Structures are given as structure tokens and as C-alpha cells.
Amino acid sequence: MKDNANELQIETLVHSWASAVRKRDIEKIIANHSGDIIMFDVPEPFQSIGIEAYKDTWRAFFEFTEPGVFDIQDLKIFADDKIAFCIATMKCSEKNNSGNFKSLKFRLTIGLIKTGNHWTIVHEHHSVPAT
Amino acid sequence: MKDNANELQIETLVHSWASAVRKRDIEKIIANHSGDIIMFDVPEPFQSIGIEAYKDTWRAFFEFTEPGVFDIQDLKIFADDKIAFCIATMKCSEKNNSGNFKSLKFRLTIGLIKTGNHWTIVHEHHSVPAT
What is the secondary structure of A20-77 as a DSSP string? Predict the structure, then answer.
């Protein structure tokens, strides 16, 4: 149980989003996203601006990862009445050169704004450390 | 000029932090940072937790980058009374294998909380797209 109603709403929203990614359901993935979302994804491009570009990043993700694997390992939520952000460590499963899947840990930061009683994701930053 | 006093305070804080990075002044870099900061940096490690680990990431940065180059290209601030986050695109200058410097663009997300009248950075996420 989270400290306040905002944190609880956001926790539910983030888990619902991750579940939609596991199910590869694009419409559910974007259910709580701003049309102006700024996405920094694990692979190129450098940034994707707007919901259509955001949807494209998931189509690319589906090609190179194992269905059903998109796990929140640790989630911290910082929320006020109108602004919130989340810090998470995540796990998915990536196709390697020989076509087999291997586990991939990545970092995630999410930024949200609240309009009325509804939280909307305006920013996601997914990454792995550079090698 | 920002929309409100919180955004203005944060804009000043982020520019002051970037200036301290350019001057390689560790004490000024951490002037507005939480002891519990969670840092996701461009290179390994996967995450650095706490202010001492955060300082270590800058010592590594100083070894592999050109002094004086740490530029905010674009900065968006989302702030309420107690929680804020920033989205930025950034530029530094990285030493390549032959010892020359080349420009490196990276993505940055910052998370902040306000205590009293003072904003504190509790999270930074720096990254480049994976290749």
C-alpha cells in the first residue's frame, strides 16, 4: 500500500502499462499517455516525440524481444498533487544474433502530470549502460 | 522566464549544476543533491545509489571527457509545489581510442523533491541509445 492516493493511482497505472507491453497490446500501452510524449528509448532513435513515434518504438521492441517478458523489478514513486515521477529497474528478454533470447536488465524513469483526477505519462526514459 | 517560481528555481539549480560539472567542482556539483540519490549514468555501473557512489560517477566522467564541455541543449521543467522532473538533451565531449575528443549527445532526466523552500535532486538518468 502506497502512502497516498496519487502514488496508488500511479502504481496501478504503471503495472497496467507493463502488463499491456507483455500482451503486446498497443492501444492499452498508450491508454494513459500524452499525445506530446517525449520518449528516450533503449535503442535509436535519440528521442521520439509524440504518440505516433512512441507507438513505433514498441513495434521495434516487439521484433527484438520475447513476448510476455517485461518485468518491473523495483519501482519508486514520487508524487505530489499534479506532478510525479517514477524510478524503476526492469527486465526484458532480448533476441541475440543466433536468434536465442537472453535476459536484459534496463533502467526506467517515467514522468507524469495530473489533469483532473487522471494521471498521464508525458515522458519515458529507458536505457542500458553504454559499453 | 519560467511560468512559476518553482520552475525558475529549478532552472537556476540545473544550470548551476551543469556549470559546476564544466568546472569539475565536485562540491558544487552535489550542492543540491540528496544523500540517497539514485543515479543511472551513461556508462556502467547499472545504477549508483547514494552521494558517495554519485561522486564516483563524476570522477570517471572527468577521466574520459573534455573539460568545460557539458551543455544543456534543451531543458523542459515540470514542477508542482513539492515534486518536479526535468527532461533535457545534452552535449559533452568524449575521448576516443586515439585520445582525441569527439562530441557526444546524451539524454537526461532529473527528479527533484522540495523540502521547505529548497529543491533537492533525488534522481538523475543519463544515457545514450544502445548500439
Answer: HHHHT-HHHHTTTEEEEEEEE-SBSSS-EESHHHHHHHHHHHHHHEEEEEEEEEEEEE
Q: Which residues 8-27 on chain A approach chain B with CB closer than 8 angstroms?
A: none
ipTM above 0.85, yes or no: yes
Burial of A17 per CB tally in 10 Å (0-12, 13-18, 19+): buried
Cis-peptide, bond into residue B67, ω within 30° of zero: no
Does any CB of chain A come closer than 8 Å to the CB of residue B93?
A: no
Q: Smallest Cβ distance to A87: which of B38, B43, B131?
A: B38
Q: Which domains does chain B have, with CATH numbers?
A: 5-127 (3.10.450.50)
d(CA B35, CA B42): 20
Q: Which of A48, A53, A89 is nearest to A72 (CA)?
A: A89
Q: Is B77 on the interface with A (CB under 8 A)?
A: no
Q: Which among A84, A87, A130 has the least Cβ separation from residue B83? A: A84
Q: Which helix (H) or strand (E) holds A97?
A: none
- A45/B129 Cβ within 8 A: yes
Q: Is the pLDDT of residue A52 over 70?
A: yes
pTM greater than the 0.90 cutoff = yes
